[in-house]
Design a protein that fits this description.
Blueprint (H helix, E strand, L loop, with lengths): L1 E9 L3 H19 L2 E6 L3 H8 L5 H9 L2 E6 L12 H11 L2 E9 L12 H4 L3 E7 L11 E2 L4 E2 L6 H16 L4 E6 L5 H14 L6 E6 H10 L6 E4 L1 H12 L11 E4 L4 E3 L18 H13 L3 H16 L13 H17 L5
Parallel strand pairs: 1-2, 1-3, 3-12, 5-10, 8-9, 8-10
Antiparallel strand pairs: 4-5, 4-11, 6-7, 11-12
Helix pairs in contact: 1-12, 2-4, 6-7, 8-9, 10-11, 11-12
Length: 355
C-alpha cells in the first residue's frame, strides 16, 4: 500500500516522539512491502516563531492533500502570552479537516497494572473508549471575549453535530460490548438537554445497544470508582477533553493513550493525547508509546491489521523485557525504547513475514 503521511512535529517533545513514529513506520513498510511517504511541516509554537502563525497555509494544504496526518505535540509556556497561541492552529486544523470524532481508547495492560494509581483489582481488564465531539461546543462557539473585568464563552450545538457524533458512537458500541454511556450536564445546560434528547431518539435505531446517561460529575467519579462499568463513552467537546485525560491516569501514565480524530470527508489525524512536556523536551526522556499506538490506530483505519498488531505486540514485548521510560518508573530513553520496539518488529521478518 502507498500512503502519503503528513507529519506535524509541533513543540516540546514532539520532534522526539515523531522521530520514533517515522522510524517504526519505515520498519513496518520495509517488512510488509508498503510505500510510506513522509512530509514534515511547521505547526504550533515552532510555526509561530518562524512564520508568525500556528497553522501556515503550506502546512494546511499539505495536510488536506495527504492520506493521513500524524501530530506529535503542540504548545508550551513560551507562547502563553503572545498574540497567537499554538492551540489556535490545532483548533483551526480540526475545523479545516472536518475532524468531528476524536476516539480515545483506554486499555490497561496487565504487565503495567501496578503502575496505575488505582488498586490492581480496580483496573484489571479495564477497556473502554471515549468518543469526543471535536468541532463544536465551547471551543468554537461565538460570541467569546474578555476584557479586564468580564469574560464570555458560548456553548452551542446543532442537531446535526450531535446526531453525527452520537451515531458514530452507537456504531462503535455495536462492535464492542454493546454498551453506550452518554455524558452530559442536562440538569443545568440547555445544550445538554438537546444532547440527551437526541441520544434517546437515535437509540431506537440500535436496540441491541444498552444506553445509559450520566452527568459529567458522576462520570468523573465513576471513572475512578468503577472504570470497568464503561465500554463506549460519548460526550461533547469540553467534557471529552477532561474525562479522557482523567481516564489516561488509570493506565499508569498520560504517555500511554493514543487517539484518532476521524474526518467526515478527508484525511484523519492521529496523535497522543498528552501535551508537549516542555520540562523534558530535548532530554530523550519522552514516552513514545502513545505516539506509536496512534500509528497503530492509523494502520487499522487503512485495514493494515497485521501491521498494527505487530507494532502493538512489539510495544508489549519491550516493556515486558524491562524497558520502561521514566513516567512508568523506568530509566529507558526515548531512543532506547524505540530501538527495542524496532528490534522486535524486525525479528518477525526472520519468521517469514516479509513477502
Amino acid at each position: 500500500m502507498k500512503l502519503n503521511i503528513a507529519c506535524l512535529e509541533g513543540d516540546g517533545i514532539g520532534p522526539e516522539i515523531m522521530k520514533s513514529a517515522v522510524q517504526v513506520l519505515r520498519t513496518v513498510a520495509d517488512i510488509y512491502q508498503h510505500e510510506f511517504n513522509f512530509t514534515t511541516n511547521l505547526f504550533g509554537g515552532h510555526a509561530i516563531d518562524v512564520t508568525g502563525t500556528s497553522l501556515p497555509n503550506e502546512t494546511l494544504k499539505n495536510c488536506l492533500s495527504s492520506d493521513a496526518v500524524l501530530l506529535a505535540a503542540v504548545g508550551g509556556p513560551k507562547w502563553d502570552h503572545g498574540t497567537e497561541r499554538p492551540e489556535k492552529g490545532l483548533l483551526k486544523l480540526r475545523k479545516e479537516l472536518n475532524l468531528f470524532a476524536n476516539i480515545r481508547p483506554v486499555d490497561v495492560y496487565d504487565e503495567l497494572i501496578n503502575h496505575s494509581p488505582l488498586k490492581p483489582d480496580r483496573v484489571k481488564d479495564v477497556s473502554f473508549v471515549v468518543v469526543r465531539e471535536l468541532t463544536g461546543g465551547i471551543y468554537f462557539s461565538e460570541p467569546r471575549f474578555h476584557d479586564e473585568n468580564n469574560a464570555t464563552d458560548t456553548l452551542s450545538y446543532s442537531r446535526e453535530e450531535i446526531e453525527r457524533i452520537v451515531t458514530y458512537a452507537f456504531v462503535l458500541a455495536q462492535t464492542r460490548k454493546g454498551k453506550l454511556t452518554s455524558v452530559d450536564k442536562a440538569n443545568v445546560l440547555e445544550s445538554s438537554k438537546l444532547w440527551r434528547k437526541i441520544v434517546n431518539e437515535i437509540s431506537v435505531n440500535y436496540p441491541e445497544v444498552e444506553v445509559e446517561h450520566l452527568l459529567v460529575d458522576a462520570a468523573a467519579m465513576e471513572i475512578i470508582r468503577n472504570p470497568k462499568r464503561f465500554d463506549v463513552i460519548v460526550t461533547e467537546n469540553l467534557f471529552g477533553d477532561i474525562l479522557s485525560d482523567e481516564a489516561s491516569m488509570i493506565t499508569g501514565s498520560l504517555g500511554m493513550l493514543p487517539s484518532a480524530s476521524r474526518s467526515g470527508n478527508g484525511p484523519s489525524l492521529y496523535e497522543p493525547i498528552h501535551g508537549s512536556a516542555p520540562d523534558i523536551a530535548g532530554l530523550n526522556k519522552a514516552n513514545p508509546i502513545a505516539m506509536l499506538k496512534s500509528v497503530s490506530m492509523m494502520l487499522r483505519d487503512f485495514k493494515l491489521t497485521e501491521e498494527a498488531n505487530t507494532i502493538e505486540n512489539a510495544i508489549v514485548n519491550t516493556f515486558n523485557n524491562g524497558y520502561l521510560t521514566g513516567d512508568l518508573g523506568g530509566d529507558s530513553s526515548t531512543t532506547e525504547f524505540t530501538s527495542k520496539v524496532i528490534d522486535h518488529i524486525q525479528s518477525i521478518a526472520v519468521g517469514g513475514v516479509n513477502r
